[in-house]
Amino acid sequence: MGSGNLGFSHSHGDGLAAIQNDPESALRALPERFRYAPFRPFTTERRFDRPVATWAWNGGANDDGVYLSEQILATCHFRIYQSVGGDAADLNRRLFASRLVTYLILRTTANLTSGTNPNDPELWCEEMQDTDLENWTSEGLDGGAYNKVIRWAFEKQGSFQPAGAPVPVTTVGDPPAVDVYIDDGRGGEYPYIYAHWHNQSMWNRNAADGLTVHQNANDTQTNYMYAKVKNRGTTDANNVTVRAYHSLPGAGLTWPTDFVEMNPVGGLPIANIAANNAAEVTVGPFEWEPNINVYGHDCVLMIASVSGDPSNVDNFTAGETIEEWRLVPHDNNVGQRNVSVVPGEGGGEALMAALDGAVFMAGNNLNRRAVMELRVSMPKVLADKGWLLQFNGIPNNRFPLKSGEKRKVQLLLKQGTEFTKADIEAAADRMIQVSLLANGMTLGGMSYYVDPNLKTPSGGKQPAGKDCGVAAQKLLDCLKISGGQKVKKVCVKKVSVDIELSNDCDCD
């Protein structure tokens, strides 16, 4: 750039130091985490968690264009880092977030010249967004996943004020003019979220009745998907389109290769969604049938888009892909639900019938071979009673997968002592959660909500014991049932067993 300084701030050096040293720092759980060089005394300390009330852009009390502004910039950059994984419990996810934000800062700087050195933080923000659209070739990742997080990080620090806002600035800036979202519990914003596959603003019904209680999909019939969409933007969103997709139940999914669109193809319209979160509009039903032979539980992805606020999926051209863990939590237009409902009213027998033998697909969507790991979080009410979730043929919960490879995982539920509906109702946590990690980094997961008002398993029949899919396919081939035909029901009327005895066997 021909200068050691940015046009609106001294530089981004302090922020880079923070981002590069935070992932493995022993100070992460302490207030000192946000202090630059806590071992060194300062007349005025430098930090990167500055509050917007006194450390805002656009004429904030400490926006001096030099060293104090550098702390505002460091706060913005560190917020991006926190959002994309810096606040994760997994070290390797934090290290990835550190590499990512370091890359974005350095490549954005490399794209500048002395003539394009920005003199305004919003221009720097836009330059970072443009950089995000470029492919990160050294990591083998297609670009376009983080531009909404970047803008949000500067918005929270006072950028993007409305016309005529008072100076000095003391409040967060405005969201985009239109900002539609499927709420995952963050109100359309981007603080770090671990289980990005828990979106409760999407639900399935076995009939097109418009009711809002989620039902497991039934694999013997058409099902109906709904969603609620909001708009945190400053103006109404007109002519919104929502599209819905499903995939084999699984974690480590990749867009678009793992997903099939529901009907109607092309989505359903929403005429208007009021600004400023003033309304929540329901869209649906989308008609769909679960993938055959996977016992009725698919993963669902829904995408809202509108002129002025397209989804990040539009950043990826033919042949480009994006991993679910990079797409879903960093684009509020996208919602994902991998939550199945299992019975909590029917006691241990019903829970065993629902979960023992259930399957999902575990995929490695990294661009290199990885050691996969399955981590289980059991609700305390079940863990205290000795219930344990394991995996058939995976005794240590670890297995290798090549890049792009998938493996079927079958649940083995170890029965504990009996529980009652009242036990589940009294529990604050009712979610059985299985997380899939690759090389120590969470890719996705499957969740099973123990419903105190559900007495028996719902949806498609859960398997038990041996997976007979291969044998069943051979039988269908023998009967010449092929060409995409679906077997809706199998009824066993008679079983014959012939036993041949041998005189020379040892019967002791």
Characterization of this structure:
The protein is of the alpha+beta class and about 500 residues long. The protein has helices at about 15-20, 65-85, 90-110, 120-135, 145-155, 325, 345-355, 380-385, 420-425, 470-480, and strands spanning about 180, 200-205, 225-230, 235-245, 250, 255, 260, 270-275, 280-290, 300-305, 320-325, 335, 340-345, 360-365, 370-375, 390, 400, 405-415, 430-440, 440-450. The protein folds into 3 domains: about 15-155, no CATH class; about 180-335, Immunoglobulin-like; about 340-465, Immunoglobulin-like (Sandwich), CATH 2.60.40. It is built from 10 helices and 20 strands. The strands form 5 sheets. Strands 4, 7, 8, 10 and 12 form a 5-stranded antiparallel beta sheet that branches. Strands 13-20-19-15-17 form a 5-stranded mixed beta sheet. Strands 1, 2, 3 and 9 form a 4-stranded antiparallel beta sheet that branches. Helix 1 runs antiparallel to helix 3 (about 90-110) and helix 3 crosses helix 4. The longest helix is centred in the N-terminal third of the chain and has 20 residues, at about 65-85. The radius of gyration is 26 Å and the shape is globular. The chain starts with 12 loop residues before the first helix and ends in a 30-residue tail after the last helix. Mean pLDDT is about 90; it is low at about 460-465.
Number of domains: 3
H/I helix tally: 10
Distance between the termini: 88 Å
Q: How many strands, which pairing sense, and closed or not: the largest β-sheet?
A: 5 strands, antiparallel
Order of helices and strands: HHHHHEEEEEEEEEEEHEEHEEHEEEHEEH
Mean pLDDT, all residues: 91
